[in-house]
UniProtKB/TrEMBL annotation:
Catalytic activity: GTP + H2O = GDP + phosphate + H(+)
GO biological process: protein transport
Lineage: Eukaryota, Metazoa, Chordata, Craniata, Vertebrata
Name of the molecule in the record: small monomeric GTPase
Main location (coarse class): membrane
Signal peptide: none
Family, similarity comment: Belongs to the small GTPase superfamily. Rab family.
Bias kind Polar residues: ranges: 204-217
Residues forming coiled coils: none
Mode of membrane association: Lipid-anchor
Organism: Scleropages formosus
Domain of life: Eukaryota
Keyword terms: Endosome, GTP-binding, Hydrolase, Lipoprotein, Nucleotide-binding, Prenylation, Protein transport, Transport
Length: 217
């Protein structure tokens, strides 16, 4: 080894590593897998195959003196997989509930997921609401103000995102990382050793920071 990884500005990589389990929930075709792919690999595929069961990936972000490592479970949105969801959000420290801003039904479904998390997930779970496909705002069916008001009423983080353009994708994960407790290094809460990408992102940099490998392998 040539020494500790460094940030792009030449400073040593943060020494403290905190690991958190994060789950994505939402109706089928709202863009959950696309959000994860954009965050982890900086990529977007116009025709993303539906997730079967769940997919596992990891990604680390540099936050001040701490490296936050997310163990990400991207769950399938089809109704037949709903009964499996508790297996993935059980023990999760964070969840992103995704809806499509062009489809009101997916917003209603997102509210159902939020209620389920509030009832059955960890009491201190950080829940974020993502209004995805913001690049299709001309076809908007869910108003920003309506979603923001719902998020405020339920103490949720809320951002409109676009996996296609990368709008707010890194910012959403950064906001979650900032809200997670980092007083002590976290043991791996996921319980499963995944084979996902482990590249790093410095989210203290501008929005396109998914190209900055600050917390490398």
């Amino acid at each position: 080894m040539a020494g500790r990884p460094v940030r792009p500005n030449g400073q040593p990589q943060p020494s403290k590593v905190c690991q958190f389990k994060l789950v994505l929930l939402g109706e089928s075709a709202v863009g959950k897998s696309s959000l994860v792919l954009r965050f982890v690999k900086g990529q977007f595929h116009e025709y993303q195959e539906s997730t079967i069961g769940a997919a596992f990936l990891t990604q680390s972000v540099c936050l001040d003196d701490t490296t936050v490592k997310f163990e990400i479970w991207d769950t399938a949105g089809q109704e037949r997989y709903h009964s499996l969801a508790p297996m993935y959000y059980r023990g999760a420290q964070a969840a992103i509930v995704v809806f499509d801003i062009t489809n009101t039904e997916t917003f209603g479904r997102a509210k159902t997921w939020v209620k389920e998390l509030q009832r059955q997930a960890s009491p201190n779970i950080v829940i974020a609401l993502a209004g995805n496909k913001a690049d299709l705002s001309a076809k908007r069916a869910v108003e920003y103000e309506e979603a923001q008001a719902y998020a405020d009423d339920n103490s949720l983080l809320f951002m409109e995102t676009s996996a296609k353009t990368a709008m707010n994708v890194n910012d959403l994960f950064l906001a979650i990382a900032k809200k997670l407790p980092k007083s002590e290094p976290q043991a791996g809460a996921g319980g499963v050793a995944g084979r996902g990408s482990r590249a790093g992102v410095d989210l203290n940099q501008p929005s396109q920071a998914n190209k900055s490998q600050c917390c490398g392998n």
